[in-house]
Specification:
This protein is α+β, with helices and mostly antiparallel strands. Helix content is 28%, strand content 32%. A four-stranded antiparallel β-sheet has the order 3-4-5-6, with helices on one face. The protein starts with a strand and ends with a strand.
Length: 129
């Protein structure tokens, strides 16, 4: 089972809760911002404050999809829905996909449907079923 530490409280995280935090970190870390791992993260933070046009929203989708495919082996993206996109440059997404509890070990035999809601740049909720 995958485990980690909650970045806000220091509490132990396991399973989907740890994966949801990982998704948040990946989506909100700008590529090039980590000294020892320059290619980690997403282009999403560089897209903040752009006009909320259709091409800009598609760019956000692509940034999320590419970064999750590269950095989160326990989550397979199925759908991204826009929850909020306004003139203030804030964009919110519902990210839906399959969570593989042992995906970090290369075991994809167990799968759960999972959803996380993100209002850039902060994760608000995470649910798994």
């Amino acid at each position: 089972m995958r485990t980690g530490v909650d970045r806000n409280t220091g509490e132990l995280l396991t399973g989907w809760a740890e994966c949801a935090q990982s998704i948040e970190i990946i989506a909100t870390t700008a590529i090039g911002s980590l000294v020892l791992q320059r290619d980690f993260g997403s282009d999403g933070p560089t897209l903040q404050d752009r006009p909320m046009s259709t091409p800009s929203i598609v760019d956000h989708f692509m940034a999320i999809a590419e970064s999750l495919r590269k950095w989160e082996p326990a989550f397979k993206l199925r759908r991204i829905d826009v929850l909020q996109a306004g003139g203030d440059g804030v964009i919110g997404f519902s990210i839906v996909g399959d969570f593989y509890p042992n995906g970090h070990l290369g075991d994809y035999s167990i799968v759960e449907t999972a959803q996380t809601t993100q209002i850039a740049p902060f994760l608000l909720t995470a649910e798994a079923s």
